[in-house]
Sequence to fold (526 residues):
Amino acid sequence: MAPPRSLALALLLCALSASCHASISYPPSAMPAAAPAKDDFLSCLTKSVSPRLLYTKSSPAYGSIWASTVRNLKFDSDKTVKPLYIITPTEAAHIQATVACGRKHGMRVRVRSGGHDYEGLSYRSAKPETFAVVDMSMMRHLSINGRNATAWVDSGAQLGDIYYFTGKYTPRLAFPAGVCSTIGVGGHFSGGGFGMMLRKHGIAVDNVIDAKVVDANGILLDRKSMGEDYFWAIRGGGGESFGIVVSWQLKLVPVPPKVTVFQVYRGLKDGAIDLITKWQQVAPSLPEDLMIRIMAMGDTAMFEALFLGTCKDLLPLMGSRFPELGVKQADCKEMSWVQSTAYIPMGASATVNDLLNRTSNIKAFGKYKSDYVKDPIPKAVWEKIYTWLAKPGAGIMIMDPYGAKISSIPDRATPFPHRQGMLFNIQYVSYWSGEAGSAAPTQWSRDMYAFMEPYVTKNPRQAYVNYRDLDLGVNQVVGDISTYESGRVWGEKYFKCNFERLARIKAKVDPTDYFRNEQSIPPLFK
Ligand SMILES: Cc1cc2nc3c(=O)[nH]c(=O)nc-3n(C[C@H](O)[C@H](O)[C@H](O)COP(=O)(O)OP(=O)(O)OC[C@H]3O[C@@H](n4cnc5c(N)ncnc54)[C@H](O)[C@@H]3O)c2cc1C
Ligand SMILES: *[C@@H]1O[C@H](CO)[C@@H](O)[C@H](O)[C@H]1NC(C)=O
Ligand SMILES: *[C@@H]1O[C@H](CO)[C@@H](O)[C@H](O)[C@H]1NC(C)=O
Fold:
């Protein structure tokens, strides 16, 4: 079957950001009483940071710097609550000074690395608020230590930088993280980070061995000086909550010199529903070298695979474990691992140089939601799901199978709790192209989510923090501190029982709740 709009789809998937949910109400106490002493903040900051790294709303470049990684047109609007200042640090000392001056003069900061947050929380506020943005995009240094297969990478790098430079260093090393090259390291690692090697090597933070973070006192800490609780929290506990992570040390992982990719399309007429029904049980129990994910859209399912081996070894495995899919020699594309990181999201014409490209010419509006599935969904329900995928305004469903390494790590080992017994993750992606077109896709996304409730995890209904969704709830602020009770509503969906431990660590490292946004971890003091 011909690949329907495959390239367009792939490009869209790496170019979209999400929309916000407009109807959020806040208690009056959450509104800022008065603007902080902003001139004092600025004069404090200019003692340590060169004025050429500071932008105020009247700077000519303010607009282009702010918009540089806003990929969601919905937020590129006059109605968006934007920062008073943008700071573009080039070294850790600039971040330390920003936090120290911000604490002293009552200026909150939000941090942005790659700007992919689906709700835009790294560069806008959902309610009226005075704040500054620390934009990490000038800090993207990466150094590889081949002798012990480790690397240090700054938060402002993008995933494509890690993939490109690791692949260039040696075709035998790699790093397991997300699928789109423009995703920022800082936000992605802060929420966990998974991609096509999750079954072999787990998620990104399972392979992070050290980090440098600026805490709420403006002090620069490493793993040793921050301690193991703090180090646990920053590896997946969600962005913004615990400080500004400057850089991360990675354990690189071995890969064979050749890997195999396939993308096969099966329509409803080709038995797509039977295939998906079987995939639910097959994909999470395959050998760890093979990941087969699904994109369900319209009347089609795209089965997309990365196999850490050759086509010659893949075909007999497919023949014995999933013969119904009918994967043939002609479907196999063999390439280096680094080439696969360009090929999978950007298509056959992409080159490894495209991994370094930080600009994207496709902009759109989007709404994203996520679910987790532990019990196979019956075939009759998949038939209904496909009637949903045919409705006006329908988005797509991306399904990533778990099992093997990601599921072998205990739920409490990192803040990311979606591991043992998990069959797969679902991401619902709805997108549209103009301000007026939002109604049908937004409605579809909420209706679809309501329909899926009986078939996904319950108590709590789990969700992935990197697929940020303000529909799940937002913090209430009382006495200038986000409340634990309001945070639990969304927080246990993202973190299950780990939420409580995160909140206790927050109380230790940031008791005044300086680092906060609509879904930051609130402090728990008792
Ligand atoms: C096109 C696209 C594809 C995606 N594909 C995947 C995928 O394959 N796998 C996956 O797991 N996720 C995926 N995601 C989700 C992605 O992992 C998250 O949006 C992630 O948070 C983005 O990181 P960022 O640095 O680009 O975002 P930002 O918007 O800069 O940051 C996100 C959050 O982290 C905070 N933050 C940013 N930098 C720091 C820092 N240095 N220290 C502390 N907090 C920080 C921000 O304040 C914000 O709260 C995708 C998103 C998009 C838009
Ligand atoms: C790897 O080597 C570097 C430089 O020699 C060192 O800083 C780092 O701690 C080593 N890492 C491990 C995991 O041994
Ligand atoms: C980077 O990507 C943009 C958008 O796709 C494209 O217009 C531009 O030519 C690319 N730049 C390079 C150097 O390839």
